[in-house]
Design goal:
Mean pLDDT: 79
Shape: globular
Low-confidence stretches: 1-12, 418-425
Number of domains: 1
CATH architecture: Up-down Bundle
Structural class: mainly alpha
Distance between the termini: 43 Å
Radius of gyration: 21 Å
Length: 425
């Protein structure tokens, strides 16, 4: 097939499922799905075991502190993704996570598992995850043509969210039927798939322009690009302002217990409902492909998210809670998908790792601070009151950013020139 014909096909075949015609995209996607399932299982198994062992919401919240001290690594991970072979980086970091899961499986099997093991493995796995986390989104523009990039991002997000729907059901059945050891063993087997898939990619993983030789200079260059971007700082600030007071996902064992009096079944169903909602939210992004007011879309989704937090905190009926959690996942997914797509569309390849690292840094800082805040506050005032407080503060945060950062609400995506960062109307 000639290159002209290939280019013409890429230009005309812009349907969402066209991304599956690219073999490397399918390999990257499969590796990502396995990674998401194994990591989701690890989070749910570790959190449920830790909560049942200690009966402390504060202990779950303190897991966020472990992640918080790792945050500087997220920035270096972006530089690393622009410095070394991205395929090898993914394979190596996933292999370390595999070894950590294997260690937890053996400790549980020999009845030697104690809480500090969960914190230690969480710390090590988190560090290697941050070191390799920027490589995967940086590889995405390599495995799909640019006209299909938004479809690639959205398809990847939807399939990852489907994986996070499946994982809680696997967790629920395995944990309640076979216990912690078999649950960790299943997660370990799935992690093996995530570790071997990246090396099967045919596309080069080497960064364009050669390796980055001066890490400090590279970090400064990435920082200057992100801070000079007319849209990304405002979007990151919006995410941080809301998530810091509302991050609930890691504390589903607490909410299942405090609000509904349930155990692992409640944890699994709440997590699955949240992921189903996220799938719906990402699907909505497909329908808004030609909607140019991307900034307003993020603002409205975040405002709805804040209102839903209030409803979640006030509700005590489990079925209604599942619906609310699903809607929370949908609103969060719309904002997250658009932030990721805009970052990739408006960033040159040589800076993709560092831009992805900056996004990971801001998102994880918000998530980890939020996990600590929600865990500690839940121990003091209860899970429901914590969500109500978070909802009120989130409404204030969205309102302030709406008016003080006008670039977000005025932003229009230019389909003809995606590298035009911001168009104010």
């Amino acid at each position: 097939m000639s290159s002209n014909h290939s280019t013409q096909q890429e230009q005309t075949d812009s349907r969402p499922w066209a991304v599956f015609k690219h073999g490397d995209f399918n390999l990257l996607l499969t590796s990502g799905i396995a990674m998401v399932v194994s990591s989701t299982l690890t989070i749910l198994i570790s959190g449920q075991w830790l909560y049942e062992e200690t009966r402390s919401a504060t202990q779950l919240g303190l897991l966020g502190a472990v992640h918080l001290v790792q945050l500087p690594v997220a920035l270096y991970g972006g530089t690393l993704a622009d410095s070394v072979d991205r395929k090898k980086l993914m394979a190596l970091t996933q292999s370390v996570s595999l070894m950590m899961l294997l260690a937890l499986t053996i400790l549980a099997w020999t009845d030697q598992l104690v809480p500090w093991h969960i914190f230690a493995v969480t710390g090590v796995s988190g560090i290697v995850g941050l070191l390799g986390g920027s490589a995967r989104p940086a590889m995405l523009p390599r495995v799909v043509p640019r006209p299909l990039l938004i479809h690639g991002v959205t398809t990847q997000n939807i399939t990852f969210q489907i994986a996070t729907v499946a994982a809680p059901f696997i967790f629920w059945q395995m944990f309640e039927s076979f216990g912690v050891t078999m649950s960790f063993a299943v997660a370990t087997g799935i992690a093996f798939v995530a570790a071997i898939m990246p090396v099967m990619l045919r596309t080069s993983g080497n960064p364009e322009g050669g390796s980055v030789r001066a890490p400090l200079k590279s970090l400064k260059e990435g920082y200057a690009f992100v801070m000079g971007h007319q849209l990304l700082p405002g979007l990151f600030l919006l995410d941080i302002g809301v998530t810091v007071v509302s991050y609930y996902r890691m504390l589903f064992p607490v909410f299942a217990d405090h609000l509904y009096g349930l155990g692992a079944s409640g944890t699994g169903l709440l997590s699955a409902a949240n992921s189903i909602g996220a799938i719906v939210g990402s699907s909505v992004v497909f329908l808004t492909n030609r909607f140019s007011r991307k900034g307003m879309l993020v603002l409205f989704a975040t405002l709805a998210y804040a209102i839903l937090l209030l409803a979640f905190g006030l509700n005590t009926i489990f079925v209604v809670g599942l619906i609310i959690v699903g809607l929370l996942g949908a609103m969060d997914s719309i904002g997250q998908t658009m932030r990721q797509a805009v970052a990739q569309l408006t960033t040159p390849d040589k800076l993709l790792g560092r831009a992805s690292g900056a996004h990971s840094f801001s998102a994880m800082a918000a998530n980890n601070l939020g996990q600590i805040e929600v865990g500690v506050l839940s121990s003091v005032v209860g899970a429901g009151s914590t969500m109500v407080i978070g909802g009120i503060i989130s409404l204030i945060a969205v309102s302030v950013i709406w008016w003080l950062v006008p670039g977000i609400r005025r932003y229009k995506y230019n389909h003809a020139n995606p590298f035009e960062q911001n168009k104010v109307v």
